């Protein structure tokens, strides 16, 4: 079920909202939680009910292992149980997400003919697997005896973050869930939630999905693209991904606020970053937090010398690439960000500061080029598109400019035939200006105060978005 769908907005969400708060009026709050967990499971299984047993098994096994960890005092035995739990989660993720990719490469390299399983990737498996690994590691480190199975299931299945994040730490949800003051409707949270949900819906339905049409058109017709067209295509995707993911994060925060749950910020104007480390402090922030706390630091972080620090930095981005998808394009994307992060760390050690504009330009240009691998279905497509983007020999002036030059200075410029309308470039420049100079939705939410003007604004963008819900499209991070 999509946040940007009629059935979610008009049916599922109103029923869950009303039912949850009505049941919270009972003395036994567990009934309301059970209702909510069941609603979450329905939300998850709406796409394909065959995914549901996988999630239920994952919840049951991880909670059981955590219960065992809480009862064990011997350190060696605890480490064994933790290792079993981590291997179980990695194996579950690896089997469904990477088996066919791995076997395809084995067949290519060794000339074998091992059959592929053609497994459908269970929704959200990358997200709920990482969240449960965090839970097991924290149980090993500090214990989680106070958790009930019901609270744990609520945390894992909470529908606002279930499908595409943020990757939430268990205490962030469960501590708020246990706060008795959150059992009643809070009008300020409702107002804030409606505001940021509407903004996120507009980002997704109007901006991201419009950009998606241009990006898909370009990627589906690469042979027809000029140098100019190839940049239009890739910028359309760069901005599509920005507003698609930003829109989802906003909508998730807004939906959680309706239930008095504050989700962590996961997106904070990453295209304003002045270096690649700054970019990753702003893009998919909870994924970066996971890799820092549960991979980078356990590997030694920056405590074991310069060479080891560089290796650790590179390795977490290599893993990040693999986490995003089972394909060589994602591996290359992760490697590029790993190399860039090592270079950035080295450069900072020299204490040389670039002018802000140059620092921003280098960062944005690198991120944009790397997105080509992220979006391309295969390495051949990425190579062809990058060649077109960087081949100055294929550049041609627009017809109007070419004719002007020919008249003024007697040259013989040949006008280009473009796949895209040149007006699209002005639209993309305008969008970039909004990204760089306007306050983002989180900044506006932090200073949000209800007013008639904002009410009118929310109403307008909500109605516009609602009218376009018929062009249903999944969020890009659903596939990861």
Automatic annotation (TrEMBL):
<comment type="similarity">
    <text>Belongs to the membrane-bound acyltransferase family.</text>
</comment>
<dbReference type="InterPro" id="IPR028362">
    <property type="entry name" value="AlgI"/>
</dbReference>
<keyword id="KW-0472">Membrane</keyword>
<keyword id="KW-1133">Transmembrane helix</keyword>
<feature type="transmembrane region" description="Helical">
    <location>
        <begin position="450"/>
        <end position="469"/>
    </location>
</feature>
<feature type="transmembrane region" description="Helical">
    <location>
        <begin position="119"/>
        <end position="137"/>
    </location>
</feature>
<feature type="transmembrane region" description="Helical">
    <location>
        <begin position="81"/>
        <end position="99"/>
    </location>
</feature>
<keyword id="KW-0812">Transmembrane</keyword>
<protein>
    <submittedName>
        <fullName>MBOAT family O-acyltransferase</fullName>
    </submittedName>
</protein>
<dbReference type="InterPro" id="IPR024194">
    <property type="entry name" value="Ac/AlaTfrase_AlgI/DltB"/>
</dbReference>
<feature type="transmembrane region" description="Helical">
    <location>
        <begin position="6"/>
        <end position="24"/>
    </location>
</feature>
<dbReference type="InterPro" id="IPR004299">
    <property type="entry name" value="MBOAT_fam"/>
</dbReference>
<feature type="transmembrane region" description="Helical">
    <location>
        <begin position="149"/>
        <end position="169"/>
    </location>
</feature>
<feature type="transmembrane region" description="Helical">
    <location>
        <begin position="309"/>
        <end position="336"/>
    </location>
</feature>
<dbReference type="Pfam" id="PF03062">
    <property type="entry name" value="MBOAT"/>
</dbReference>
<feature type="transmembrane region" description="Helical">
    <location>
        <begin position="357"/>
        <end position="374"/>
    </location>
</feature>
<feature type="transmembrane region" description="Helical">
    <location>
        <begin position="245"/>
        <end position="267"/>
    </location>
</feature>
<keyword id="KW-0808">Transferase</keyword>
<dbReference type="InterPro" id="IPR051085">
    <property type="entry name" value="MB_O-acyltransferase"/>
</dbReference>
<feature type="transmembrane region" description="Helical">
    <location>
        <begin position="418"/>
        <end position="438"/>
    </location>
</feature>
<keyword id="KW-0012">Acyltransferase</keyword>
<feature type="transmembrane region" description="Helical">
    <location>
        <begin position="53"/>
        <end position="69"/>
    </location>
</feature>
<keyword id="KW-1003">Cell membrane</keyword>
